[in-house]
Amino acid sequence: MVRAKTKISQSNEEDHRLLSSSVDNDFSDGSSEDDDEYSLAQPYHEAEPLISTLNKKPQSSESGPDFDYSPSPQNSNGAHLDPLIDETTVARASPPPPYDDELPQDNNSRVYNARFHIDYNEHDPLTSDQHTSWSEEDILTRAEREHLRPKSGIRSAFMNMANSIIGAGIIGQPYAFRQAGILAGITLLILLTIMVDWTIRLIVINSKLSGSSSFQGTMEHCFGHIGLITISIAQWAFAFGGMIAFGIIVGDTIPHVVIALWPQIVNVPILSLLSNRQVVIAVLIMCVSYPLCLYRDISKLAKASTMAMLSMIIIIFTVITQGALIPPESKDTPGSSLLKVKGEFFQAISVISFALVCHHNSFLIYDSLKTPTINRFSRVTHYSTIVSMIACLAVALSGFLTFGSSTQGNVLNNFPTNNTLVNVARLCFGLNMLTTLPLEAFVCREVVVNYWFGGKPFNLFVHILLTTGHVLCAMIISLFVCDLGVVLEIIGAISACTLGYIIPPLCYIKLSTRSWRTIPATACIFFGFVTMIISLVQTFSKMIRHEGETATCR
Fold first, then answer.
1. Distance of CA 396 to the CA centre of its chain
2. Do 261 and 290 reside in the same domain of the chain?
3. What share of the chain is helix, strand, coil (3-state, %, to 5)?
């Protein structure tokens, strides 16, 4: 007979090793990663044996273990936990079993780790506590959903996350160092990378503690409908603002590269349109980005993300090498900026945060893993944030030490227009934005679908309508808005701070049961609010005083 549930430990996240920083060896048995992940992601190879097994009537205690197929109740923090079992009993099951950080032990083991059941939707008949029996149709539907779930390996997930981080923000890192000073800039970049790495993983940890399967679900679990609205707006605004920014960058880079490579193109009929900013934005976004946005699975973008990463390597290489070759008369010394902490310190935080924050699509990347576990997602997060920090640091130091106090928001604009390698880098930068834009479109679409169509079956018309609407709206705005700095500052100050430094630790405080663990989370929330308020005040005051040059569409 099934033993009574033991008392749950005071700290659920500690008992189930959700906060463990160590990475287990997932392949200690010598099997390949793909084989191991496939075996875990596909626990049932045929639907018929699964149905026949689950439809068996419970046995008596005399003939065998007693199975209870009703969903397990929630504990105090909303997570579904299976009871512990002894040598002669088997844990009751709720098919199919959830993904675990550890491989399940055999039935002869005395105790194995309690497992979390992800609560996909409270109205879903497959996960609702109101449904205590499993029909053949329910099992087939869930088996099909598992079979069709997007799957990618750790390397593909790393490419998607790294591409999401190393985007438009990396080119502004020299400007951030100009605002803060070089030593303060290096310190900020390292500390913010650590914070971002931690809060990205907190998103998944919070989902386990709350029994939710999405960022929105966690916020709704913690703060009700207000929480769902807050996270939906923050995610959507950050992603949609990124789409607008990427469109502006495409219009600011590629036409100038085309003219530099072929000056006579302005006199060629029809082809002269390629030198027009609006035409280039419309054609490239609709012909390159839009088809990629129509994919349902984010894992399909792995190859595009790989190409984008290669283009960013070219950009980094260009800034480092060409900066050293700049004539002395074109350089500017940093001067006292090497040691001095400047007044634009908080603006530098906003610029760096915009480059590092990718919380709005981190759960999509987690869910695209073949075996979505905390340990594997932690590996992806660590690799992505470390590589991104190194890339940002290399660009920031090279650009700022070369151009000093004259460093512009887009460091490529500091280089001469007749530099061939720099023009190639500009072209790569624009193309990189075209392949990164679909990642933001994925987030916008998923936020709307989860809020308005949650729990409903996939609808192709809605999928195409939402994708087309988001891409067209972002493209139209980017056609007529040319001030990239204002877009990045406002979206970065509001959404980046909210997603990166406020919401994840706020949910963790709500779900955590140990007060000493909430101290870093509380400090992170305070830091996020202070940075957001000061950055917005400085940005709007600059707009009111009309400081800086006014951007004009050309």
1. 23
2. yes
3. 65, 0, 30
pLDDT of residue 70: 44
Say whether pLDDT at 27 is over 50.
no
d(CA 354, CA 375): 26
From CA 215, how far away is CA 208, in angstroms rounded? 11
DSSP label of 116: E
State whether 155 and 124 are in the same domain.
no
Q: Is 130 helix (H, G, I), strand (E, B) or coil?
A: coil
Q: Which domain holds residue 528?
A: 150-544
Helix (H) or strand (E) holding 49: helix 47-54
Instruction: Quote the pLDDT of residue 389.
Output: 93
Considering the chain, what is the average pLDDT of its residues? 73
Question: Is the model's pLDDT at 473 over the cut of 50?
Answer: yes
Two structure tokens written together for 298: 């984010």
Query: Which two three-digit tokens encode residue 121?
Result: 């939707």
Q: In this structure, which amino acid lies at residue 373?
A: T
State the Cα–Cα distance between residues 401 and 340, nearest whole angstrom: 15
> Both 255 and 188 in a single domain?
yes
Residue 59 burial (10 A CB sphere; 0-12, 13-18, 19+): exposed
**Mean pLDDT calculated for residue range 172-191:** 89
pLDDT tens track for 121-171: 444 434 444 444 555 555 555 555 555 555 678 888 888 788 778 777 888
The strand ranges marked E within 29-96 are 80-81
Statement to judge: residues 88 and 190 lie in one domain: no
Side chain identity at residue 471, one-letter code: V
Mean pLDDT of 264-293: 88
Of 401, 260, 268, whose CA–CA distance to 324 is shortest?
401
